Structures are given as C-alpha cells and as structure tokens.
Amino acid sequence: MNKVRSGAGKKALLAALPFVALMAHTAPAHADFRVCNATQSLVGVGIGYRAKAGWITEGWWHIEASSCKTLIEGPLSSRFYYLYAEDAERGGRWDGPVNMCVAEKEFKIAGVTDCVARGFQRAGFQEYDTGEQSSWMVQLTEQPTADGPPAPGTNGQ
C-alpha cells in the first residue's frame, strides 16, 4: 500500500472518507427478518413460521430500547411469519389472533397445538404477510396493547 506523504494527498483522502462512508451505508440490505424496538423499554420477541417439517416457534430475542435484531438470517423462505412480543419493563405486549406455543425461557418448539398439555404456554401471534419478499422488518412502537393494531411491517428494501 502506498503511503500518502504530501499534505494535499492527505486532504484529498480525508475529503473522500464521507463519500466512502455514504456508499457503505447505502449498500443493499442483507435479506433477513428483523425486528426494531422503537420503544424506551427492553422487549422480548418470539417468532413463528412454517418450516418443511411443520410449524416452529422460537424465542426469546431480547431487543434493547431503540435498537434492532435479526431473527432470521438470509432470504425468507416463507410468505407468512408470526410475531409475539412483550415489554419486559412495563408489561405490555404486541400480539394477535394466531395461537402458538412459547416457553418461559429460550425456546424452539415444533408444533402449535396442545401447548399447555406439552408443558408450554399459549400466546397470540400477529401474522405478517411478507408478500414473498426476501427481507422484512417489523417496527415495535410505544403503547403495546392486546387489542391494538399490529406493529407495522415493511419489506427491507
């Protein structure tokens, strides 16, 4: 690598840095399913989806206030995904009408029937139709309620 020795060369290099940073920021997003927590509380999130072997629910992802986490990495393989989240500090939740299984601690559960009989809890998940996009993001906002509208979802593009 050539070293920049002149003052003019250093100035030109420094002037180019914001452009390089901008290019890195505008690069295409990776395909995945992300959840962003736009609240001021820690949130626990579970996801449900249909795999080749049947229904799967997984959790808990702990998402700090004002941050995002990737729940599924890579291009999405299903059209529909289901999300349930709880505000760990204030007790609210983002839920929906689709019953699936969850557990108190970290979990990956096959099947969505007989949750209680199998030693799990039942929770209502909200359905997100990704329209077969390869990437999707859900934004959790303040005021989670059992009766409120679902958190908005968008394709990742």
Automatic annotation (TrEMBL):
Keywords: Signal. InterPro entries: DUF1036. Residues 1-31 form the signal peptide. This is Putative membrane protein.
